Amino acid sequence: MTGTKTLASAASGPAEKRTGRMRLATFAAVAVAGFLAGCAERDNILLGDRSDIRGGPAGAEAVVNEARPISLAAPVTNADWTHRNGGPTHSITHPALSAAPSALFSNNIGSGDSRRLRITADPVVIGGRIFTLDSQSQVVATSTAGETLWARSVIPDTDNARDASGGGLAVSSSVLLATTGFGEVVALDPASGGEIWRQDLDAPGTSAPTIVGDLAYVVARDGRAWAIELGSGRIRWTQTSTVPVSNFAGGAGAAVNGEFAVFPFPTGEVLASFPEGGLRRWSTVVTGQRAGSAASTISDIAGDPVIVGNRVYVGNVSGRVVALNIANGDRIWTATEGAVGPVWPAGGSIFMVNDIGELVRLDGDDGTPIWRVELPGFAESRERRQKTRFAHYGPIIAGGRVIIASGDGLIRQFDPTSGALVGTIEVPGGAASNPIVANGTLYVVSQRGQLLAFR
C-alpha cells in the first residue's frame, strides 16, 4: 500500500505543481493589476504652470531685451586689415564706414563652396591690396578698383586639389602667409605672389596664422602649435595639447601681443606662452555645453581668442564663452553661450554670434545678456525638412553699427544699443567669410567665389 501510494503520488505530483503555478501566476497578475489600478486612483494632479525642463526654446536663456546706451570709440579710417578681426590680437579700433554702403565691385577669386570644399579664409588687406584664398587653395590679390593683380595656387605638387580645402591668411608689409588643408604654411611676396618659403607641418593647419614681429604663430587641428621665423620658415619652437577626438574645418588661430601668445586648441584647452621663447605661462580649459538643446557637443574652440587690455575672451562652439585674466588665466566670468567666431568687445559690451544662430550683446563686466536677436535659421521653410542651417559671419562693428554677413544672401546692420535691424545689403550667392573694413570699404567673400566690395 505504501508503495502504491508512493507511485500514485509520483504520477500525480507534476500536474498538481503545474496547476499550483498557474493559480499563483493568475493571483500575481490580478494583484499587480489591482495595485496599478490603486495607484491610478490615488494619483494627484499637481497644480501650477508647467515649465520646459530644458530652459526654453533651443536652450536659450530667457532675456528681456534691453536698449542699454553704449559709448563707442570714435570711428577711425583704418588703411589695413591684416588678420581676422583686424589685427594680431583679433581686436581693432572702431573702423569708419558710411551709413548706407552700396556695391562698388565684384571680382572672381577662383572656386567657391561645393559639397566637399569650403572657403574658410577671411580677406586681409595691406598697401591697397586685398588678398583672398578660395576653396581650392588659390590665393588672389585684388586692387581697390576690383582688378586681379596676381593669382597663385599654393597646392603642393604631389597633391590633388580635391583632397583638401580650408585655410587662412595673415599679412605684413613683407610677407603674406597662407595656411592650407595640406598641412603647410606658404609665405608669398605680397607684391608679386612669388613663393618665399614653404613649411610642412605634417598636420592640417587650416586656422588663420598670426604675425607679430619676426615670428608667425600657427595652430593645427591635431593639437599642435608652432612659432615660425618669418624670414626663413624655420620652426623656432612648438607647443602641444591633447590630440582631439573631433573638430571642424577652419578653426581658431592664436592671438598675440607683446607679452603673450594665446593658443586655442580643438580639445578646448587655451594655452598662453611667452611669444619669443615659447615658455608656457598658463593653461585652462573651456568646457561645457548649452543646457537642454545644444547645437553641438564638440569642445572645439570656435572663437579665436581676443585680447583687449588685461583680458582675453574665448569661446567654444557648444555653449561657453569666458573672460580670462591674461596675466594668469584666471576666469573672470563665464557666459552660457557658444561662439561660432571671435567675439567683438566694444563700449563695455561683448558682441557675438552664438551657437544657435543669434546675435547677442553681453555685459562686459559679468557676461550677462543685454539683448539677443534671432538670425535666419534654416534654408528649408517646412519644419520637417529643415536640415540646412544658414551660416552667419561676424560680428564686426563699423560706422557705429553691428554688421553680420550671412549665408542667406544678406549683410545685416544692427543698432548696437537695442539690437534693432537698421539696414541690409544684398550678397549674391550668400556670404562665405567674415566681413572686413579697410579705407571705408566693406569687403566680404561670397560662396560663389567672388570678392564683393561695398562703399
Short description:
The protein is built from 1 helix and 32 strands. The protein has one helix at residues 2-42; strands at residues 103-108, 124-126, 129-133, 138-143, 148-153, 167-171, 176-180, 184-188, 195-200, 210-212, 215-219, 224-229, 235-240, 255-256, 261-264, 269-273, 280-285, 301-308, 311-316, 321-325, 331-335, 344-346, 349-353, 358-363, 369-374, 392-398, 401-406, 410-414, 421-426, 436-438, 441-445, 450-454.
List its salient traits:
four-stranded antiparallel beta sheet; mainly beta; disordered N terminus; globular; Methylamine Dehydrogenase, Chain H; 32 strands; 9% helix; 455 residues
What does this structure look like?
By secondary structure, this protein is mainly beta. The protein has one domain (79-454): Methylamine Dehydrogenase, Chain H (7 Propeller). Helix content is 9%, strand content 36%. The chain has one helix at 2-42, and strands at residues 103-108, 124-126, 129-133, 138-143, 148-153, 167-171, 176-180, 184-188, 195-200, 210-212, 215-219, 224-229, 235-240, 255-256, 261-264, 269-273, 280-285, 301-308, 311-316, 321-325, 331-335, 344-346, 349-353, 358-363, 369-374, 392-398, 401-406, 410-414, 421-426, 436-438, 441-445, 450-454. It has a four-stranded antiparallel beta sheet with strand order 1-32-31-30, with no helix packed on it. Strands 2-3-4-5 form a four-stranded antiparallel beta sheet, with no helix packed on it. The termini are far apart.
